[in-house]
Structure prediction request, 335 residues.
Amino acid sequence: MKILVTGGTGYIGSHTCVELIASGHEVVIVDNLYNSSADVINKIEKISGVKPAFYQTDILDKENLEKVFQENKFDAVIHFAGYKAVGESVAIPLTYYENNIAGSINLYQLMKKYQVRNLVFSSSATVYGDDFEVPFKEEYGLGTTTNPYGTTKKMNEMIITDMNKADENNSAVILRYFNPIGAHESGLIGEVPNGIPNNLVPYIAQVVAGQRDFLRVWGNDYDTVDGTGVRDYIHVVDLAKAHVKAIEYAASHKGTEVINVGTGKGYSVMQVLKAYEKACGKQIPYKVMDRRPGDIAVCYADTTKAEKLLGFKAQYDIDEMCADSYRFTCNLAKQ
Ligand code: NAD
Ligand code: UFG
Prediction:
């Protein structure tokens, strides 16, 4: 298939492009490089042997986005482009709604105009909120989001569902990611955080690289194995492979499916820290702080639907995730 990948030079998008190419698909990337660099295109080529077509285009710029549709006959779209920082979304909500909602609507309108009927959308476990029991199941539906970023994911899910109800020839798979970490085993692509990382593993990586003094562990009084927060970490390459299965599923079905992508296992902050210490061979300093507002104690996926519908099961374990993150961090430091 010829697939438009919005946000394809970003963290998850770049790994997905590598896996799409490996599965024989043709990839066209649209990204405005707000949170990524054009050099990622060369890295994708180095890994996969194929240089994807690239348009430096903002999805908010409908006129230029339309040119991409005029120049290419797409079979499908994987939509990653968006802003993703939870804290920032609280401070500048309109910017988040504009980019993540108005940008998405531009894209969906062009898909309609050019009859591109197959879509995979990047949603998040954040849409479950704190309303449900773990493991989170897709059939729970949408919970109460606690920040504008989460609300943009929830709204996109609703928009896609309504859009596909109105046109029964459309097909979409909405993937609810749990916590993607790690990097490609080549060490060439991975997550490059913008500013002070909010997420656990990018923060640990910067402590290991000497850019931060210690990890701040946000609370150790939760009702969990060691009191620290538990999450379902998934290797980004596993997540990328799930996208290949999801877009192939979308192309051979109609309607809308919501599917969790996680491992189904939860690890605490201290367990991740230990795994990272094993990967880098040194102790990582940390201090226990108060709980972070808005955090939940435990979050992990029910992965039955991904297995049943997509035949997808995550392969990498937490040690491999940390080892690959560490390799990428070492390469970044050398640049
Ligand atoms: P990322 O920031 O690395 O990638 C997003 C890409 O989109 C970037 O390259 C950025 O430059 C581009 N972009 C942003 N706004 C754009 C616009 N208006 N026009 C064109 N390009 C634009 O983020 P990621 O971690 O790869 O996340 C990809 C998607 O998955 C996002 O939608 C994110 O919300 C979602 N998601 C991520 C996580 C996570 O933990 N990383 C979890 C759940 C969902
Ligand atoms: N944590 C720390 N110290 C840090 C960062 C995080 O102790 O410096 C802890 C958190 O308290 C939490 C765990 O590590 O217990 C994971 O936190 P992250 O910030 O890495 O991830 P979250 O689960 O809070 O949120 C992430 C994304 C959201 C997404 C959600 C579910 O940031 O956008 O996963 O997919 F919605």
